[in-house]
Write a structure and sequence with these properties.
Blueprint (H helix, E strand, L loop, with lengths): L3 H22 L1 H4 L4 H6 L10 H17 L2
Helix pairs in contact: 1-4
Length: about 70
Amino acid sequence: MRSRAVLMFGMACLPFAAVMTLAELRPELQKVFPRVLFEAFNLNDQPNLAPYLFRHLAILIILARASYQ
């Protein structure tokens, strides 16, 4: 991996995605985020591949590739 910015962005996005996923299961975490933000990342309403899901997959691939180099 040559871009440190991509690495840092990826490492910041993954915990955010984990918290948003947990917020779906835990109502007390939903209160931490604005309702609009939570609804934008709610996975139950979107049958298609949303842009943030594609970004999440791309980040996982980039980080996995970087760990093997």
